[in-house]
Amino acid sequence: MKRSFNPPGGSFPQEGGHRKSKKTVGIILALVLLLTCVVSGCGKKPGSAGEVNVYNWGGPYIDESIFKDFEKETGIKVNYSEYQNNEEMYALLRMGGSNTDVIFPSDYMVARLIEEGMLEELDFSNIPNYSLIDDAFKNLEYDPQGRYSVAYMTGTVGLIYNSAMISEELTSWSSLFDDSYSGQILMFDNQRDAFGIALKYLGYSQNTIDETEIREAYDLLVGQRPVLQAYVMDQIFDKMEAGEAAIGPYYAGDYLIMRETNEDLVFVRPVEGSNRFVDAMCITKGAKNKTNAEIFIDFMCCTDICIANMEITCYASANTEAAEQYGADMDPDDYEIMFASDETLANCDVFTHLPADILALYDQLWVQLKR
Questions:
Q1: Could you report the per-residue pLDDT of 257-279, keeping only the tens digit for each?
Q2: Least CB-packed of 174, 176, 196, 282 within 10 Å?
Q3: DSSP codes joined into one string, 5-59
Q4: Which has more confidence, 227 or 329?
Q5: What mean pLDDT, rounded, does the chain reach?
Q6: What is the largest CA-CA distance in the chain?
Q7: Rounded CA gap, 331 and 33, in Å?
Q8: Structure letter (DSSP) for residue 147
Q9: What pLDDT, on the 0 to 100 scale, is given for residue 5?
Q10: What is the secondary structure of 231-293 as a DSSP string?
């Protein structure tokens, strides 16, 4: 069953929904949420106040229109900012340069932040909607006791290529190292994904701690540099949508968004296998607004809020009910891209937290690669 958002002093009734077109569903969801508030008389509740600082992936990776509903219901103001990758977020936190409460790290980064004492334990009495999160996303390797994180979205990495620029069907990571596409290839601008692709292409685990294998992957990436157009993160949208590049690796949900602008784009998970990620919601150590942050996470677990966020991101929510409703009438091919099958996932690695000496090696090699 659906669970309503119940902040102190009020409730936020929920409505169901299905995926139609991105623009249509977005409008419908916004109207439904607004009408629900009007009918139920919800609004700012006595005793609710303050703010919450939310630091999330760019992309977009959340429906920012829901902040108004959250603020109206709780009286808690949302201050929102973005980062491009886990390493950027981690570096900012380590330097103490970010006044954040809620962050959205990926699996392996959650484990690192826990190990280094950078996260607060969650008070789940403030997060009753945690019961809506699928058990498959609880107590995972990165947070085995389930004390520090609540799963948000999951997805996979694959190749995106422009069929108007590349006539052949691509099936392998080898295309990213093929000089026949020189000047038209994009590559991840973060070390874990870039090395992960090279390792997978070479037949190694993306979580290897074998220095010889990692250095072999480094040599492959060095050899790739002359054929690259650029290292990218969010910049891939403009380049692929505009036909300024022919091929690049990226996340499945972002492909579905890019394709709305450029129908020539194709997504494929390479035969060598790929990466599956789980991004989670966590609270930073010493957060000034911890209770507000937990109330925000609870709100983010609501079924309709999860549906609204799936509509914007095209990633699969960890909320079982929301995922079932959203996927009910999707095109089968799009469904497999967004909700990968067990067979597909069996050929994917989930990044794990690596030992300190291996992380240092990654840092060293990445700096050398980017010189």
A1: 999 999 999 999 999 999 999 99
A2: 174
A3: B--TT--B---------HHHHHHHHHHHHHHHHHHHT--PPTT---EEEEEEESS
A4: 227
A5: 89
A6: 65
A7: 26
A8: S
A9: 58
A10: EESTTHHHHHHTTS-SEEEEEHHHHHHHHTT-TTEEEE--TT-EEEEEEEEEEBTT-TTHHHH
pTM of the predicted model as reported, rounded to 2 decimal places: 0.86
Tell whether omega for the bond before 60 is within 30 degrees of 0, i.e. cis. yes
Neighbour count for residue 34 (Cβ, 10 Å): 14
At 233, give phi and psi (nearest 5°): -125, -105
Contact 275, 107 (CB under 8 A): no
Cα(187)–Cα(175) distance, integer angstroms: 11
Q: Hey, what are 226's tokens?
A: 């002359």
What are the residues facing 345 on neighbouring strands? none
Digit-coded pLDDT (tens) for 168-216: 999 999 999 999 999 999 999 999 999 999 999 999 999 999 999 999 9
Q: Minimum mean pLDDT among 41-50, 223-232, 255-264, 272-281: which range?
A: 41-50
**For residue 49, what pLDDT band results from cuts at 50, 70 and 90?**
confident
Q: Which residue has the tokens 């950027």?
A: 88
Please say whether the beta carbons of 338 and 319 come within 8 A: no
Task: Please list, in sequence order, all residues whose beta carbon lies within 8 angstroms of the beta carbon of residue 153, skipping any fewer than 6 positions away.
Answer: 61, 253, 278, 279, 309, 310, 313, 315, 316, 317, 318
* Alpha carbon distance 282, 116 (integer Å): 14
The structural domains of the chain, ordered by start, are 22-153+277-342 (3.40.190.10), 155-275+345-370 (3.40.190.10)
pLDDT value of position 59: 77
